[in-house]
Amino acid sequence: MERLDKLIASRLCISRKEVKALLRRGAVTLNGAVARSAEQKCAEGDELLVEGRRLELSRHCYLMLNKPAGVVCATRDKQCGTVLDLVPAELRRSGLFPAGRLDKDTEGFVLLTDDGAFAHRILAPRQHVPKTYLARLNAPIDLEQLARAFEEGVELDGERLRSARLRGIEEGAQPLVELTICEGKFHQVKRMFALYSREVLHLRRIRIGALALDPALPPGGCRALTAGELEQLSSK
Fold first, then answer.
1. Which of 22, 46, 163, 204 could cross-link 107 (Cys pair, CB 3.0–4.6 Å)?
2. Who contacts 149 (Cβ-Cβ below 8 Å, separation ≥6)?
3. Which of 5, 46, 103, 157 is catalytic?
């Protein structure tokens, strides 16, 4: 059980003074009844609406974001918009952060959460949770040769990388390939192809673990994960 003022302030990232103003205006309803007291208690499973928007009351928040290019994976940035700026008001809460990073120009699946322990399980190198990307290259490749080299593990910065899986999606002057890696080193995907004199023109993360990015989620779109999707995210 949690006080309404504390819970709403946390979820909407506003002050408790602002929450009290909402309560005075009758803008908050709990289980269908207008709530007036900041001290009123609310629990997971209750229906809490603020100005007609339902707030998520679960202990932790797990969100799927389809990151567009030009947005940084950070909680704040003085020059650019961040992934947190794309979270709808009803899904916001204090402590939310991106679990793992994508480059500013890379698009696709970003997990947002306020559950540090869960994020650690997804990100810890020893967990070997795979991440899958679609990469558009600037020139044709010998797919068989490159797939074999990536599977054996290429050397980057004097270190042998873990086995990665490469498969072709589209052939042509600028082929599209799918690459699955189990690490997250700095610019890893781009640098792996650079070892073979290939530039990544466009990069998009489409899967974390066994969970694929929702194809119905538009660029900049964000939604809560289902319980089933959370299990997929943890599986390999």
1. 204
2. 196
3. 103
